Amino acid sequence: MYSREDNDYSSLIEKKLKASKCMRLMIVYSPKQLTLETQIQEYEIIQELKRDKFFFAQEENKVLLKELPIIEDDLQREIGGYLDTCFDDGVERLVFYFDKQELKVENRVRLSDVADIICNNVYSCTMPINNELINKENISTAPIKKARKTIIEKLLKGDTVDEYLSGTSAEATIYRAMFEATGIRLKNYARNVEGVLKVFEKFIEGACDKKQSLAILVDELTSAPIGMRRGVIPIYLAYSLSLRREDIVIYFDKKEIQLNADIILNMCERPQEYSIFISLEDVIKERYIDELCDLYRVKKSENLTDSRLQNILVAMQRWFRALPQVTKNIKHQEEYMGNAKLSQAFPKIRGILQNVEANPYEVLFVELPHAFAVEDDLVRVAELLSELKVKLAGFYDWITQKAVSRTIEIFDKSEKRDLNHTLSEWYAKQSTIAKQGLHSNEITGLMNIIADNKSFDDGELVKKVVHAVTDMYLDSWNDTTIEEYLEALQQVKGQIEQMDDGCSSVGNLELSFVGKSGETITRYYEHVSEGTGAILKNILSDTLEDFSDLSVNDKVAILLEMIEKELG
Q1: What is the pLDDT of residues 310-332, one digit of tens each?
Q2: Torsion sign (Cα): 279, 283, 285, 289
Q3: How many other CB atoms are there within 10 angstroms of residue 274's CB atom?
Q4: Pick from 113, 110, 121, 89: which is nearest to 21 by CA?
Q5: Could you give the CA distance from residue 120 to residue 66 in angstroms, rounded to a whole number?
Q6: Closest-CA residue to 87 (of 115, 111, 114, 118)
Q7: What dihedral angle (degrees, nearest 10) is formed by the CA atoms of 61, 67, 73, 74?
Q8: DSSP codes joined into one string, 257-286
Q9: Is the Cβ–Cβ distance between 174 and 131 less than 8 Å?
Q10: How far apart are CA 322 and CA 186, in angstroms?
């Protein structure tokens, strides 16, 4: 500070400082009157002119390019000399500062010594880290960033760091400065080190079963009395987390994310966007997690980047995706489930497992218990999940068998035979026109399936019948599709049974030829009107004309081959 007038303001400065009680403030005051205001203004004007490219672009100002540096040097010497006289160590200037709550005013003291006193008082809990490569507010060089990330990865994975105890690599020198010189590795702590580690520990303890923002930790570390630089915080955070055995959940806003080195760095760079949650380890939770790991075949790991909760959720989602579609379509199946709790819970669980942005902790400890309506009993949740998994594994076979029995019931009320023999006996009683006629896709498809069936597997046979009658696959059914299928099957069956050779053959046309396998194929069909399939007729006619190089025999043979294929 300086004065424009020839007055002594030292007593006023002392009064203001006592009122402020700012422990971090140091004021250097010279009572000598400032007499170089004009020179200082000229110096500032020169700095402005040097930045003004348009000014020097004008021809009449180009001569100043050579003159300005000379003038600037003269002003620098004059101003510098004045400042040395006023503010250099000596009797003419006063230094105001606080030392342990006491305001001191001295003149014969070095400014560097005063700065040390202030820093020791304000940042009394700072831990010594003697490595300027890493002990910075911001790490800007790529090699040091890479070295820091490598150390973090090893800490999170629980890998050995013995290789860093010697050598000159960036990783080795940084590790030794942060863990060897500070005594952390051998628990022989240097000054203030244990206190700083307890700040990390306290923060993590505070996040046990209660979400905590990373901004709380970073603000405390970077503020007085610790004053830790941000460059080292990610490594110590990774170290502190690596000591925990509980499940660690990281939130980016409201979304759970996987813990890894990049996330640790992002957490410390933008702490206000991240939160941490520690799931306290207890017997019930561990039993619950162990049972889920066994149920969904999840391997256990000590690697912090390999989250147990995330792995369980991923395994559950993969298991769900592997279920047949008919199983995933279940909405209400108390008849099969035999348990109202399972039947009511599954639609909710389906929604949970289909959510690609689901949060593992919330799914396992909040949403699943809520779906089963047993929020306070994790052991019961595991039991119900096990029951549900077994039930869902058998649903496809159950619905298939139900389709078989209901199909047999339609064709034979007494249900004395299996599906294959029931359909064969019914088929044998039908008219020739029903068997060999060309009808709707549903009728023709059903009759062909029965005629060509050589399998005694009722399950496979009913799947073919379902597809022929409804043009749907059984494994894509929902809760109501079976009734729709049975209704359609009943209609098709009735239409077939109404066909009679005596009256149906009148007006029908007959197609008979020998197929590729040598058997005679005979089919009856009805004449279609001129306008039916006009586009198809035109396409076929034009196509046959385009292939004039083929003989009539070739064309007829190809057409009959296509007809045989269409007949199934």
Answers
A1: 899 999 999 999 999 999 999 88
A2: positive
A3: 22
A4: 121
A5: 48
A6: 111
A7: -110
A8: E---HHHHHHHHHSGGGEEEEEE---HHHH
A9: yes
A10: 50
Please report the pLDDT score of residue 306 as a whole number. Answer: 66
Mind spelling out the 3-state secondary structure of 425-453?
HHHHCCCHHHHHECCCHHHHHHHHHHHHC
Q: For residue 33, what is the DSSP state? A: B
Backbone angles phi, psi at 338, to 5 degrees: 70, 15
CA pseudo-torsion sign 471, 473, 476, 479: positive
Strand, coil or helix: 99? strand
Residues 378/284, Cβ–Cβ less than 8 Å = yes
Task: Measure Cα distances from 257 to 104, 262, 266, 314 in Å.
Answer: 52, 11, 12, 13
Model confidence, pTM: 0.62
Q: What distance in Å separates the CA atoms of residue 500 and residue 426, rounded to the nearest whole number?
A: 15
Q: Can you say how many angstroms the Cα of residue 225 is from the centroid of all Cα atoms in its chain?
A: 38
Copy the structure tokens of residue 156. 């999170």
Q: Contact 433/524 with Cβ under 8 angstroms? A: yes
Contact by Cβ (8 Å): 97, 117: yes
Alpha-carbon Rg for the chain, nearest whole angstrom, is 43
How far apart are alpha carbons 380 and 40 in whole angstroms?
A: 81
Q: Report the candidate in 417, 421, 407, 413 with the shortest Cα–Cα distance to residue 456.
A: 421
Helix (H, G, I), strand (E, B) or coil at 378: helix
251 - beta bridge partners?
Answer: 256, 275
- Other beta carbons within 10 Å of 378: 21
The 3-state DSSP composition of the chain as helix, strand, coil percent (nearest 5) reads 60, 10, 30
CA angle 491, 440, 475 (to 5 degrees): 70
Question: Of the candidates 227, 233, 229, 220, which has an alpha carbon nearest to the alpha carbon of residue 24?
Answer: 227
- The closest of 312, 304, 267, 261 to 285, measured between CA atoms, is 312
For the chain, residues with pLDDT lower than 70 are 89-91, 281, 301-306, 501-508, 568
Instruction: Please state whether 142 falls in left (phi above 0), alpha (psi between -120 and 50) or beta.
Output: alpha
Q: Which residue is listed with tokens 């990390």? A: 200
Structure tokens at 244: 């925990």
